[in-house]
Amino acid sequence: MSGSAVSLSDVATYLPGEPIGADYYAQFAETDALRDNVMFRAPKFRHHVAPDESAIDMVERAAQGLIERHGADVIEAADVLITHTQAPDQAFYGSGGGIAHRLGMRPSWVLDLHNGGCAAFVLALNVARQLLTSGAGHTALIAIAQNAAGQVFDQPGVRRKAQASVPGDGAAVGLVTLSGQSPILDIECRTYGEYAGEMAFAPDPPRKWWQPGPGELCIGFSESKITKVLARGNRQVPEVALAVCDRIGLRSKDIDLLVTNQPNRVFLRNWREALELPAERHRDTFDECGNLFGAGIPINLDRAISAGQVKAGETVVMAGFAHAGDFAAAAALRWGGRGR
Fold first, then answer.
1. What pLDDT, in 10s, does the model give residues 102-115?
2. What SUPFAM superfamilies does this protein's entry cite (predicted)?
3. Helix/strand/coil percent split, the chain, to 5
4. pTM of the entire predicted model
5. CA-to-CA distance for 37 and 226, rounded, in angstroms?
6. Beta-sheet strands, E only, within 86-239
7. Of 174, 177, 58, 178, which Cα lies nearest the Cα of 123?
8. For 159-207, what is each residue's pLDDT tens digit?
């Protein structure tokens, strides 16, 4: 079993609501020392989760594409379910159990990942590959929900800040199978524990996130912290992508499609330049969807597949980093087509 190929056979996605234009946040904007920082230059559009829409709802809607193409029985029979929710709907546990119930699944494994952040999809691929090759089953489902934009960043006090105009919401579901259809060629995951916790809530006045108080929860940013995060992200994503390319014998300039997370336009440009790729071989939806956090990689991959940007036999490299740089990961696969 350990020698069997594992494939990312398909991916399906969901964007909530109608696109919200940049003028939405412009009407709330106040003087902010970080307003002109490259980290917070707003996309043209993004989507927001509805007030009564849960992460489970989003994943269920994303999964419809897989169900239409592969049948409900394939999803229901999945042996492994791996989830990541940017803003968990409940304080003490993730969405895995609720997603399994909603999709009619009875998986042997249900894992909720929190540390993967914007690179959670690649981390989940790595976990799924290890479980399937070890004999845990034949099929895994990866479910990612980014729901912080319409909940955390659209709070009345937070939406006035520069950071609020960049995030967008969306969800994605990936189907991983013990097959050679679209084989995963290699994965690199790196943890940088020295940076853990640097992306944190900073309400005013200060309090722990669970304590009552008047200050709304927002991310604590400063010019010096942003400079450090930019330097880490610019370095880490090319490093993990190049490590994967080196092991599979592929020059970075020969990557057929690069798919990354998309915090801002500066990272997107710097990453493709570092890997010597033209813009047309680096898929992004930043101006349509903003920063999609962990959902960015699978949503962009789905868009690329649907647009015919990647063809059977071509090599896709997915790469991203999380939070303030405490985790980075990359994966390469040989795309084989969507099948039925």
1. 999 999 999 999 99
2. Thiolase-like
3. 35, 20, 45
4. 0.96
5. 9
6. 109-112, 139-146, 170-177, 184-191
7. 174
8. 988 899 999 999 999 999 999 999 999 999 999 999 998 988 888 899 9
